[in-house]
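Section 3.1: Structural characterization of target chains.
Under the original work plan, the team committed to producing a structural model for every single-chain target entering the pipeline before any wet-lab resources were allocated. The record below documents one such target. The sequence was received from the expression subgroup and is listed exactly as submitted; it comprises 353 residues.
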Amino acid sequence: MSNEIKSNDGPVDKARLTSYLATLPAIAANLPIQKIERVGQGQSNLTYRITLREGAIILRRPPMGPLPPSAHDVLREYRVLDALQHSAVPVPRPLAACQDVEILGAPFYLMEMISGDAIHFTLPPALAAAPAAVRHDIGIQVIDTLAQLHSINPLEIGLGDLGRPTGYIARQLKRWKSQLDYTRTRPVPDLDWATAWLAQHQPADVTQPAIVHGDYKLDNLLFALEPPARLRGVVDWEMATLGDPLADLGWLLAFWREADDPAPELRIAPRVTEQPGFPTRAELAQRYAERMQRSLPDLNFYIVLAMWKLAILLEGHWARHIAGTADDFNFAYLEESGPIFAAAIRRVTQERH
């Protein structure tokens, strides 16, 4: 039998991974490996469930293929998890980090598997059937945990050098504009218009940068599957840095839907928060302000920034589609949906939040 467990992303060498795990006393006792499974279909760092003789652990590694030196830095992600272990932010316990590329072809790390699941397009049956107050509490835990993260002094937990303390928004605009230019395969006038609008409406630089998750949303939060609502862990920290905390808030609110919202421009948009009980965007923002003990500016810039970044990601998916390098992902819908979503960004600039 082959020692390689095949996936769409390339081989995972079971024998080499086993040899490495045998060097970790806390894990070695539970060998051999019973199963290796890809978890989720994310296209950034890859997640695998490693089932052992008793229990399971999670492995995170970069995508297959050549990568820029700073891309998909899983060891940086491990460092953030380790630093947050004794904070108020629930995160999986990191178990080990490996820099030896001879094992999997790239660095990787291991963490505990949390009992729970992320909320994507549907609620777990028990939470869906629960009273509306349970869903309201899910939203409250989401926003309270974000406020807890942003209340941490990075210096006090050893993350004072996680990113440059100034110029976060300016760097975001430069980085993502470069990504748009790199993936550009068709005219995108609404995205170009939004790029100029964001540059003209940049807020003042923050005086006290916070730890910014970078992708804080429901499907990166693991909840217990049955009531009461319990946020068990925040995951996918690969974009974490120091910066403007309102960027995280804007990202969360930009894709937090309400029951009376018009139909989304994108079919991939989760609509689970349209269900009765979930807090509104205004309620989340007010709760965040209370927890942070600060007044909030109009959040329009940050919501537009979030939508603009997503639109640029989608243009990258479209470029892969027409180049024939999208593997099993069907991005054909972006021929029409991509420009429609970009046009929506221009409309949002006229709103207030």
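The longest helix spans residues 300-323.
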